[in-house]
Amino acid sequence: MNNSLGSKMFNALNYAVLTVFGLVTLLPFIYVVIISFTDPSEYLAKPLILIPDNWSLSAYEFIFSTNAFVNAMGVSGFLAVVGTLMSLLITSALAYVLSRKRLKGKKFFLVAILMTMLFNPGMIPNYLLVDSLGLMDSVWALILPALTSAWYVFLMKNFYQDIPDELEEAAKIDGCSDIGVFIRIMLPISVSALAAFGLFYAVAYWNTYFSGVLYINRDALRPLQVLLQMMLISASQMGDPSVAAMLESERTVPPQVIKMAAVVVSSLPIVVVYPFLQKYFVKGMMVGSVKG
Q1: Thinking of the domain 61-285, which architecture would CATH place it in?
Q2: What pTM, to 2 d.p., does this model score?
Q3: What is the crossing angle of helices 224-233 and 67-78, to 10°?
Q4: Among residues of the chain, what percentage have pLDDT more than 70?
């Protein structure tokens, strides 16, 4: 290690710049949290508040008392849980099958999956496909079109290829079928990869927005991110009537404070889940990334 004066000064300057940059980056998030806990009367008196004199849970009590927000939370929670589990099952199963040398037509399937990465059909073909399958105004329209990722399939395939064939042969000697080998051997071995990819899938499903705008027209099935966008445009009494009514029905809570509380609540689940998966994150993202 270089302990010269110049090296120490560089490290000190580097830490100082990164600290300032980190504080500037965190400031908007801190401001959102503070405003969400600010007493409505104090916010109306002075909208720019750094440290409020009076703290309040009025905004959180209000958003959880409204059917629109609770329904949207339930829809997004269903997408994040069910969608993530289905995506992990399909991704890992497809990757395991493609990693087996005895699979007939393996190159054809690999090229077909690769083509989905290189050529995106676009919004209109996707919309026509969802409509022709009868999935409009259904939560499955938000899950099935995004059920797996070609990139994750290739990474998982490379991971399964690195596992010695003797392990699979030993399991089959003990009486395991192909499905038994996958469930009892491969899935437990790939926990780190599944945790990392599961986090990405969960964040993507939780943040579902564009698909919700395209495929969902019923208020009860709108995901949380769509509702938040509607809340942002409803402050000026525009946008969806149900959300505008929700924001205006409680005169004592300003719409801006309600929005801040909604943003905090919508971000909290992912922030809470991430620390529990962090130990798998780095290891999982390196899975299958070296060998092609």
Answers
A1: Orthogonal Bundle (1.10)
A2: 0.78
A3: 140
A4: 86
